[in-house]
Fibronectin type-III domain-containing protein (Labilibaculum manganireducens), 540 residues
Amino acid sequence: MKYNNLKMKLPLLVAMLFIVIFSACQDDDDLAVADRLFRPTISETSYGGTWIKAEWDQYENVEYYELKISDDSLKTFVQEVTTDTSFYIFENLEYDTDYYLQIKSVGETLESRPYVNKVITTSDYPTQLNSISSSDVIDNQVRVSWESVVYDSLMLFKNDTLITTVALTDSENEKKERIIKNLVEESSYVVKAYSEGNYLGKKSFTTMPAQTFEGDVIDLRSYSEEESYSLLSQEYFDQLAIDHPNGVTLVLAGGMAYELTGPTLSSNVSIVTGYSLNGKAVIAVSGNFDVDGAANIQKLYFEGISFTDHPDKPKTTDSNFGGTYIFNVSNSGAAVDSLTFEDCEIRYKRGVIRIKTAATISAITMNNCLIDSIGGYGVIKQDNSSAVIEDIRITNSTITHAQKFVEATKAPTLKSFTIKNLTACFVPGTSNYYLFDLKGQLLENGFSITKSLFGMGWNTDMINGYRSSAASVTIKDNYRTSDLVWTFVTDEAGAVTVVAPMDINQLSGDIYSVFADPDNNDFSVSDDRLKDKVGDSRWW
């Protein structure tokens, strides 16, 4: 009997279960339809530095809209509001920040699912910080500059982490510049400016790779000027030769002045300015560098150095600018394979390189150098019949206000002589002097003067070009200003003979037409025949 009752109830149970399932599905479908018709979609957004405006369509049966805004992908919310309008403006936000906006509708009996808008980034503050260019950054420092505002601090960030806060002084605000140090090479940073706690914009930059040198290196950039003065003594250079028999590179700090008495070198030495935001290191020698008579040096190398007069031998002392040299080789037997000046500035010297004894500098190279105010011993002087110079090469350089330039006449040792992309003005100092006096030099490996620009002499109406005993001379693609006149003589019959000219193209203008401001050492050119072609490229 019980079995029959169960048999009769089973169809009824199945029917009831079907009704329940059908009803549940119908409820879900109704809810989905309601959400699609009820859930708002943001149709338009606009923004400024500290505000975001959102707009959406109005819906029936909505009592209000609930909005939330987040700056961390909806993990937390910086503002939560409700409104019964179809727009809202979030204010007091942060500059240049990513925000996420969430909105949903709320009715009397119905609530939509949230709608999340795509990320919106507020505008950055219209900063007075200057853009940071490659010339403002090295491996471990950055120069931050700004316009006519006053900041009280700079904050430095790396990967959104505050690295340091730099308080600014009155003098730095007056100068509108601050150098931040102790950075990490090849790293990206953001610097932000503040005044009284208010954010005033930012700039980003990436540091350079660290500077590398061959062989042994001694970095002197952490020493003060006083420490460096006492350090760079003769004893120090003697010890370098012992400790670094294969040579060493000394790295100097840009902008720092190094005062030396004049060491005698006996081993390979390179002296360079390290990466710097303060220009070149300055070397002031009260005497001159020399070379030990027993030394056989492969390389002496200077890069990024500014050579100038010494306080004990100021440029105003005499007509030879204090009477000092860079090299005045006085020890017989001294031998140097290669002496190079790269990207150097040389001023206020009686002479730059002089060999006054039976010594050898096989190759002298100057590239990208600016040479100014040189006395009677000129830039290169072979001043002994046993002095040996085999190769001279001067390229992409400028020389001005020099009594003499190159004088190698005492011994026929010179094998090659190359001048290329030179700008020369106010040199030499009298009508008897030559630009290039190579009397007796055979120059079997070549004599070449190309793509160079020559202005008038220094306090003289006429100058001589060159002389040598070279069998083959290449003088090509050179120009001279109209006021450069070659020295000439007139015989009793009135015949005019030019003594030592160079066959180069003459321009129609004088130095004041060709150069921007020659009296102040601005030799910039605008003539299309010269730009990107002739003379020192720094003036193009």
Observations:
- Residues 44 and 140 are 45 Å apart (CA to CA).
- Confidence is low (pLDDT under 50) at residues 1-8, 12-34.
